[in-house]
């Protein structure tokens, strides 16, 4: 019985040393911290995307209003035509 426990303990120590060295041991606290960090980054990137998306839309609206006030027809490039047709 004592010998079996010793073998089990030796194998367990080897397992944890081997996988800890390569960073494969699952650590719930570190995993939760990484998840929070990734979610904060995702939220910041989403907010930045939304800001620039709204800015681009506002810029196009202003350009369109200025063109209509000046009485000039504005030619759209293919990218703008496609985005307007999808909207």
Helix/strand order? HHH
How large is the share of residues in beta strands?
under 5%
> Could you report the average pLDDT, rounded to the nearest whole number?
80
Main pleated-sheet profile: none
Percent helix range: over 70%
Look at the helices and sheets and give the structural class: mainly alpha
Number of strands: 0
Oligomer: single chain
Distance between the termini: 74 Å
Runs in which pLDDT lies below 50 for 5 or more consecutive residues are none
Helix count, per DSSP?
3
Shape label = rod-shaped
Taking all Cα atoms into account, the compactness measure Rg is 29 Å
Quick take:
The chain has 87 residues and is mainly alpha-helical. It has helices spanning 2-21, 28-70, 78-86. It is built from 3 helices and no strands.
Q: Explain this structure to me?
A:
By secondary structure, the protein is mostly helical. The protein is built from three helices and no strands. The chain has helices at about 1-20, 30-70, 80-85. The protein is rod-shaped, with a radius of gyration of 29 Å. The N and C termini lie far apart (about 75 Å).
